C-alpha cells in the first residue's frame, strides 16, 4: 500500500520500503541514528528526494496536508497549540469515545495540558492521530511514557487498526513490543536502513 | 507669534543635559556613556546632513531627486529593520521582505495623502512630500521590525506546535496562524497605543513643532490627525505585508515549516 523508493535527505541514505495493508514494521536503532528524520521524510515534513506513493497515488499528486492526514506522523514529544485539551479536538464527542478507549477519563477534554502527566499527554496526542483514521501511522515511541497497563491498551488499539487494514511504521526501543506488534524489523544506524533487528 | 530662531549655542546648551547623564553613567558604571555619545554624535551629523540635503532638494523641487531621496530613506529603514532582529531570514530575504513592505506601504500612503488631502503644488513638492514620507516611514519601520522579529522568534519557539498541526494535515496558514496573529499584534500595538495616549499623555512632536512655529492649535491638530491616520494606515499595511510575506518564506508549497531558511543566530 505504501511504496517508498530511494527516499533520502541529508543524514538519511536512500532507502526502499514497502508497507502492506495491515502490516506493522518496527524500526529501531541508537539515538541520533536517523529514526525520526526517516519518519519525517515519509511524512514530507522536511525537504527530501525520492518517490513515495500510497495506494498507487504519488505523494506529489496530492496536496501535502491531504498526504499527512493519510500518512500521519506522531512525534515522540508531540506539540500543542493551545493551553487546554479541547482546542486540539474539533469533534468533542468522537474525542471522548477515543479517550475512553485509551483509558483516559471522559473529562480530559476540559483539562489544561499543564496538569496532564507525560503519559496522559502521550495518549492525548495519539488520540489526535487515531481520530484521523489514517491509512499509515508513523509513530515515534508512542508508549515510551506509559505504564505497562496503558501501553497494553495502546498496543491493543493499534492491533485493531492493523486488522482493519491500516499500516504502521513503529519506532520502538522495546524489543518485546517489536516482537508482539511487528511482522518485520528494521534497523537504522548512521542514517542507513537495514533489514532485521539490531 | 513669530518663529523664534535658535542659535547653535542654544542647541549646544540643550546637549548639556546629555553630558550630565553620560557623566552619571560613568560614575555609576552603567556602561552607557559610550553608546550615548556615539548615538548623539550620529544624530547631530545625520540631522545636519539632512538639513543640507533638504535645503538643496527644496530649491531643486525635482520629482526625480525627491523620489530618489525617498528611496534612499526606505533603503536605510530596511537596514534598520534588520539591525533590530534577533533572528534573520537567510540571504536577500532578510533585507528584502521588510524593505519591500515599507516601500509599498510608505509610497502608497504618502502619494495618497499628497494627491487627495494635502495637495501641494506641484503634488510632489519635496517640502511636503519628504517630511511626510519620513514620518510615515519611521513609524512603519518600528512596526515592521517588531512584527518580523516576533514572527521569526515565534516560529522557532512554537516549532513543535506548528509541526504537530502540519503532521495532522493542517495547512500552513492554519498551522502558523497563531504565530502570525501574534506577530501582527506586536507590530501594531505601538501605533494603537500612541493613538490612545496622544493628546492626553503627550503632545506629538510634529504638532509641537507647528505650534512653536506659530500655527494655530486647531490647524496643528488637523495636521496631526491626518498624520496619525496616515501613520496608522501605513504601519498596518507594512506590518501585514512583511509578516505575511515572512510567514510564506518560513514555509513552502509542500506546507513544511522551513526554519532552515533562517540564518544561524548568534548563540545557536
CA-to-CA gap between the ends of chain B?
Answer: 59 Å
Q: What is the N-to-C order of secondary-structure elements of chain A (H for helix, E for strand)?
A: EEEHEEHEHHEHEHEE
Number of helices of chain B: 10
Task: Provide the low-confidence segments of chain A as ranges.
Answer: none
Distance between the termini of chain A: 26 Å
Low-confidence stretches of chain B: none
Helical residues, percent of chain A: 25-40%
Please identify, by name, the CATH architecture of chain A.
3-Layer(aba) Sandwich
Number of separate strands of chain A: 10
3D shape of chain A: globular
Largest sheet of chain A: 6 strands, mixed
Strand content of chain B: under 5%
Assembly status:
heterodimer
CATH superfamily of chain A: P-loop containing nucleotide triphosphate hydrolases
Instruction: Please tell me the overall pLDDT of chain B.
Output: 93
At CATH level 3, the topology of chain A is Rossmann fold
The main sheet of chain B comes to: none
- Gyration radius of chain A, in Å: 16 Å
Helices and strands, with pairings:
The complex is a heterodimer of chains A (198) and B (268).
Chain A: E1 2-9, E2 12-19, E3 24-28, H1 35-42, E4 49-54, E5 57-58, H2 64-70, E6 71-74, H3 92-101, H4 118-132, E7 136-140, H5 148-163, E8 167-171, H6 175-181, E9 184-189, E10 192-195
Parallel strand pairs in A: 3-8, 3-9, 6-7, 7-8
Antiparallel strand pairs in A: 1-2, 1-4, 4-5, 9-10
Helix pairs in contact in A: 3-4
Chain B: H1 8-27, H2 33-60, H3 63-83, H4 93-118, H5 126-157, H6 159-167, H7 172-175, H8 177-197, H9 205-212, H10 217-249
Helix pairs in contact in B: 1-2, 3-4, 3-5, 4-5, 4-10, 5-8, 5-10, 8-10, 9-10
